[in-house]
Design a protein that fits this description.
The chain contains 16 helices and 24 strands. It is of the alpha+beta class. The chain has three domains: 63 residues, Beta-grasp domain (Ubiquitin-like (UB roll)); 159 residues, Threonyl-tRNA Synthetase, Chain A, domain 2 (2-Layer Sandwich), CATH 3.30.980.10; 321 residues, Rossmann fold (3-Layer(aba) Sandwich). The longest helix has 28 residues.
Length: 562
Amino acid sequence: MSSTMKIYCKNLHEYIPIAGGETLLELAARLKDRLGDLRPICAYVNNKNEPLHFQVFAPKQVEFLPATSAPGHRVYVRSLCMMLYVAVAHRYPGMRLRIEHSIGGGYYCRLFRASTPLPPSEMPAVTAALHEAMRELVDRNLPFERKERLTSDIIERFREEGLNDKVQLLESIHELYTTYYRLDGVVDSFYGALAPTTGHTSVFDLVPYKEGFLLMAFDRNDPQRPAVPFPQEKMYEAYLDYLHFNDVLGLRNVGQLNHAVDLNRSAELINVAEALHDKKIAAIADEITERYRQGGARIVLIAGPSSSGKTTTTKRLGIYLMTNLLSPKIISLDNYFVDREKTPRDADGDYDYESLYALDLKQFNADLAALLRGEEIELPTYSFELGKRVYRGEKMRLDDNSILLMEGIHGLNPELTAAIDERMKYRVYVSALTTLSIDDHNWIPTTDNRLLRRIIRDHKYRGTSAVETIRRWPSVRRGEEKWIFPFQDNADSTFNSSLLFELGVMKDYGEAILRDVPNDVPEYAEAYRLRRFLSYFRQIGDSGVPPTSLLREFLGGSSFKY
């Protein structure tokens, strides 16, 4: 070991002596009494997320992170995923595990014998056996051994294990060395840190669900017990629909996508994905029209979380309704924000624009009632520069064949339009439900897709830096959890706004913006993680993305006015 040096521990706000080569895990053990209730699962080292296996050889700034933090939770879930894979490998050798996406508060998993899905009738017994095997791993408190070897060696090892999805990805990204993990004799790769030992991930559950099961981590409100699944039937159906679409194209993961790009299939992927969007929006328009002709559906409420593409979806839906001989009128709920000084505050004291009560509900309902009576109203426009509503002489009246389209995050909240007869309303939920996976054991979080969209859009149209957008994102997410997600199953239709090719197109845009995030700010950790994530994708040029594409809302070049 080298001589003693000092690191700055951000948790304690002081410098701590450390021997060269000492791991963060050893340091955390030394500081256990001083860290109090904090049980680290990973750490920020110079504002970069690192596992506790990290060895310190030079002065650093270190911040220990618990599993309840956002990066800690990602580490916790990744570690559970490896434990699950090890359990499958030991209890059911030769069976293929696929962790497909998040749903119902957990992570949807399926098992396959060769290419045949395991029947749902077998799931209760299988999940019970896998739960037992994972519990045994926890009790043994085994280390997640972090290794690094030549990528060519790892490719051969994964090929021997039948992990062809990982082989294809590694062959496509051309890294010289690859980091992987070993647990109880089983190897796997994860694109981020894992916990030090299996004892750090003791709270979990496996719950049979549909054709597979849900992997549940701890409850965010009570970390001592597993989270309980909640129903998301319509979201599940939307996911399933797009997964079938991916299967037809033969594109389930990033390795396959990169291979398709190498074969010059980018134009085909763009055209097919855009055609699917057209088809889905047209189908929703037809259903709305049918209800309209039956005496209902005078108001269409389009809702969804931040950067889901609500605005473009609304405009495209309006076009299809026009082809059905209806006259759509569009209102953005954002224009009904209260003046900035009246905006509610969140727990951090920031303006809570995600709150329902950030809207002037009284004025909104008065205008809505007037429109339904056949009266003319003057529409407001919210000026973000001034922090208040302004009126610019824009008038609106509903005609005999008019249909009102209202776009905003609260569209599915019953309180927004409580005075309106339910028969008059049709609700559409829009979200970017990413169905592409990195590989069988690593999915692409929907939130990452949306955050990248928002970073690019805010930088281009609002002059907002990536630092500001990343800093604001946790507040946005808390608002979504409270004000949007609880109402998503109220929707009559769910529209998946994700595009199979979009992360390849956003790659260059996102990386350029994220590189400007300085490494001496806390937001650097997230910027670095997103850059690393984008590095797995082949670049796809945006020249073939049509001006009507939803992606143009974020990249620019749209034929729609925003």
